[in-house]
Write a structure and sequence with these properties.
Organism: Winogradskyella luteola
Shape: globular
Oligomer: single chain
Number of strands: 15
Number of helices: 16
Largest sheet: 7 strands, parallel
CATH architecture of the largest domain: 3-Layer(aba) Sandwich
Radius of gyration: 23 Å
Helix content: 40-55%
CATH class of the largest domain: Alpha Beta
Protein name: UDP-glycosyltransferase
Distance between the termini: 19 Å
Strand order of the largest sheet: 3-2-1-4-5-6-7
């Protein structure tokens, strides 16, 4: 008789509007449910929120603990003196007061779970925290069932150049993650290149790591209304996502301007949109938009459902990465762009997960500062658009790779010691 396998998911946030990371984690949880797993979610979102059709337990922060009280005191001290005591504590222990208190809060909540006997325990984090992973390290009975999801290189000094930040207590963080690699049943990575990159530092990830890419969701887009700045009838080049410092938009803007110079008629029916946080380039973008009427720059974050409908209606979806030799990341918006089925303009290293998946024969990619090539790509796609305004990406292979079907295949390949 078939027995439905159980997955206990421990996730930091299920609020899809707080970050692209949370969007991706929720998409994975929903698709696991659609694979006919019995799912229970413990989340540390710290707000009243749930995922439809899935039992969700909101983990409460432990506010009356030594760590929580010390953290509040050091915050008061910082406001008065501008001296951050937590930095020195982090240098000694590897972690901030708040990180350790959050991990203890998660661990305490999980220890109260008595009725759900999981076949797998999946930890999902975001940004650079990995508090869910820290919590599970303290629950040895689940190590043989533990799927430790690693969304980015960790610690920060393992990021490829040009990222060059070394955190306080980096050596302690490194040892923490070595423990994760050794004690988890499997490391789970959204990209093959990230698995190989992290495996070069933690060999256990190479030996037992698996790849589960960011997921396409089959759900209908709920918002059907485009914002008034989006020209539905025009040729729209869309970059949706945060512009972190290494993701310099100058090459794209200069390439677009070069395209306009060579195609005067395009001034009346094209636009370039930057949607998302852009503080790192605020001055440059403000200057450019004041001199280029076809350029639109959002005032910070835009709601997820609004971005989705724009991606579905854009003429080109841009994936912009750092100028580097390698980019092992799979951008969170990659499945959204594949689902949108519109041409992708990839601006990033040749050795990147996006480039690997698009394939060697995919034409529309270049380095982020190759202005001439960017202009050529835009011009070619513009001419195609003039002939057929419903130009499609047409990559069923990538739709399949990011699908529930592939997710189920990967999950079925795993063994669990749940019965032991």
């Amino acid at each position: 008789m078939y027995k439905m396998k159980k997955i206990l998911v421990v996730v930091e946030s299920i609020n899809v509007n707080d970050s692209s990371a949370s969007k991706g984690r929720v998409a994975l949880i929903k698709n696991l449910k659609k694979c006919n797993y019995d799912i229970k979610v413990y989340h540390y979102t710290r707000k009243d929120i749930s995922i439809q059709g899935i039992p969700c337990v909101a983990i409460k922060e432990k506010k009356v603990t030594f760590l929580a009280i010390v953290n509040k005191l050091q915050l008061i001290f910082y406001k008065l003196t501008k001296i951050r005591l937590s930095k020195y504590y982090e240098m000694l222990t590897g972690f901030s007061f708040s990180f350790l208190n959050d991990a203890k809060s998660i661990k305490a909540a999980l220890k109260n779970e008595k009725d759900f006997n999981p076949d797998f325990v999946l930890t999902l984090s975001k940004a650079a925290s990995f508090t869910a992973h820290k919590a599970i390290l303290g629950i040895p009975k689940w190590h043989s069932k533990w799927l430790a999801y690693v969304h980015d290189p960790y610690p920060f000094h393992f990021y490829p150049r040009p990222y060059n930040w070394v955190e306080p207590g980096y050596h302690k963080k490194q040892e923490f993650f070595r423990e994760v690699s050794k004690k988890s049943a499997h490391g789970v990575f959204p990209s093959q290149l990230l698995k190989e990159w992290m495996g070069s530092y933690y060999p256990d990830f190479l030996e037992r790591g698996i790849v589960i890419p960011h997921q396409i969701q089959d759900e209908e887009v709920t918002n059907k209304v485009l914002p008034n700045y989006f020209s539905k009838e025009g040729f729209t080049i869309l970059h949706a996502g945060n512009l972190m410092l290494p993701r310099n938009p100058k090459g794209l803007i200069e390439g677009y301007k070069e395209f306009l110079k060579n195609n005067k008629e395009a001034k009346k029916d094209t636009q370039l949109l930057f949607i998302g946080s852009n503080e790192a380039f605020n001055e440059y973008l403000n200057h450019e938009k004041n001199n280029l009427e076809q350029l639109y720059v959002s005032k910070g974050y835009v709601q997820y459902n609004e971005v989705q409908i724009m991606q579905m209606n854009a003429s080109i979806n841009v994936i912009l990465e750092a100028k580097a030799e390698i980019s092992p990341f799979l951008p969170g918006k990659f499945p959204h762009c594949i689902k949108a089925d519109k041409p992708i303009l990839h601006l990033g290293p040749q050795m990147s997960e996006t480039s690997r998946l698009l394939g060697e024969d995919y034409k529309y990619k270049s380095q982020i500062d190759d202005t001439q090539k960017i202009a050529q790509h835009i011009e070619e796609l513009y001419q195609k658009w003039k002939n057929d305004k419903y130009n499609h990406l047409n990559r069923p292979d990538l739709v399949d790779y990011l699908s529930i079907k592939n997710l189920k295949t990967v999950m079925n390949s795993l063994s669990s010691d749940a019965s032991s």
